[in-house]
Write a structure and sequence with these properties.
Elements (H helix, E strand, L loop, with lengths): L2 H9 L8 H22 L3 H21 L3 H25 L15 H22 L15 H11 L1 H23 L3 H12 L1
């Protein structure tokens, strides 16, 4: 046997012979991508929020397939349990239309598409560059344990973690401000009461 064949046999599965976990990862990733596309293209705001639940749930499944159970449950608890509920409350408090909303399209579709493509290419480039020679051993020891995740989060990622909490607080304050804004009819009624 040649050294290349011996090396390939020692490495186990190759890139062109995927395992069941890798196939499931790709299929769930495609379903998550489809749900994300429906989220940003639908004109019904409540449907967009519900498709966002599917997309975030798909990401949690991807974490499970990568043996990061703790991160998967954090995804479910924080994003599915908190952020989506906050979004739905914001929709209800701002009296957003339940059916089709022609106002949901701002007319900046091509700019948004260009920004999305640039962001996607940048993220893929950063991930590929960072993990160019790193392979995740799915059959090896668990990497997503609470201890390992906590050490990484609070040693290396504490600033983005805190920035995310400020972002969520800003979203909550924005929802409250928008819900307290009066409509033109209510402003007219209030001025009529002040004149009488």
């Amino acid at each position: 046997m040649t050294p290349a064949v011996t090396l390939a046999a020692a490495a186990g599965q190759g890139f062109l012979s995927p395992t069941g976990v890798e196939i499931a990862f790709v299929l769930v990733g495609l379903a998550t991508l489809g749900a994300a596309l429906v989220t940003v293209t639908t004109k019904q705001l409540v449907h967009a929020a519900l498709w966002l639940v599917v997309a975030l749930g798909g990401i949690a499944v991807e974490y499970l397939l990568l043996t990061a159970e703790f991160i998967a449950w954090v995804q479910v608890l924080i994003y599915l349990g908190s952020v989506v509920v906050l979004l739905l409350f914001g929709l209800m408090l701002t009296k957003a239309p339940i059916g089709r909303s022609p106002d949901a399209d701002s007319g900046n579709r091509w700019i948004a598409l260009a920004v999305a493509i640039v962001a996607a290419v940048s993220l893929v480039w950063v991930v590929v560059d960072a993990f160019r020679t790193t392979w995740i051993d799915l059959d090896g020891p668990v990497q997503g344990s609470t201890k390992v995740s906590g050490e990484i989060l609070f040693q290396h990622w504490v600033l983005p973690f805190e920035a995310l909490s400020v972002l969520l607080l800003a979203a909550l304050i924005g929802a409250i401000v928008l819900s307290r804004r009066n409509t033109p009819a209510e402003d007219g009624a209030a001025s009529d009461k002040g004149q009488h």
